[in-house]
Every structure is written in structure tokens, then in C-alpha cells.
Amino acid sequence: MKNILTLLLACAALGAQAAPQCSADKFVIVSKTGRMDDQFLYVVGKVRNDNPVACGVQLKMEVYDKAKNLIDTRESWPASISNIAAGSTYSFKMHMERARDSKGYSIEVARARAW
After folding, report:
1. 63-79 pLDDT, tens per residue?
2. 3-class DSSP state for residue 10?
3. With contact defined as beta carbons under 8 Å apart, do 61 and 43 qualify?
4. pLDDT one-digit tens code per residue, 9-40
5. Is 9 strand, coil or helix?
6. Domains (ranges, CATH) in the chain?
7. How many CA atoms lie within 13 A of 38 on its CB side?
8. Which range is least confidently modeled, 7-11, 96-100, 108-112?
9. DSSP string covering 71-101, please?
């Protein structure tokens, strides 16, 4: 009986260990290039998953005017509902309709999760 109880407690302890989690902090935007035309802002780049497990990533693009005021935001899951393998790089494309007075943009990792 004592051996069974010890075995059950050991199994419970193994099950209680946290599985590796996806973290937005473990995604890195390794490159990005943007261009604006009369109507749209287009951005292409690559994001790398430095998490220990495969995860999905949500990117947020913000557009600013010449005074650096935020004028528009767009969020996207570039791999849709697919996970990006741990240690791999994924190419992304984002675009949004350009406001007439937009002068700059930023891209950042907003969220991460496993699908």
C-alpha cells in the first residue's frame, strides 16, 4: 500500500510540472522593410520563434503622423492558426490603407500562443 501511495504521489508531481509556455517576449522581429504608395503602407519581414516550443505569433503595426501621434493600428497572425516551429523564422506581410498624413510605422510582437 505504501508503494502504491508513493507511486501515485510521484505521478502527481510529474503531472504538476508546468509545460513550456509560449511567450511574446521570445519572438524577435529579425527584419522588416516598408514602403508607402498613394493608398497603402506595405511591410514585409521575418519573425523568429525563440520559444522552446512551437507557437503562433500576433504582430501589431502602428502608423504615425509627422508629430509621432498614433493614427492607425493593425494586428495580424501572420501564420494564421499554425504554429511556428521553435527556433525557426517565418516571413510575414502586412498592409493597411494609408492615411494621408502618415509618415512612419512600427511593428512589434503583440501576443503569442500555441494553437
Report:
1. 998 999 999 999 999 99
2. helix
3. yes
4. 555 554 445 667 999 999 999 999 999 888 88
5. helix
6. 21-113 (2.60.40.10)
7. 0
8. 7-11
9. EEEEEE-TTTTPPBPTT-EEEEEEEEEPPTT
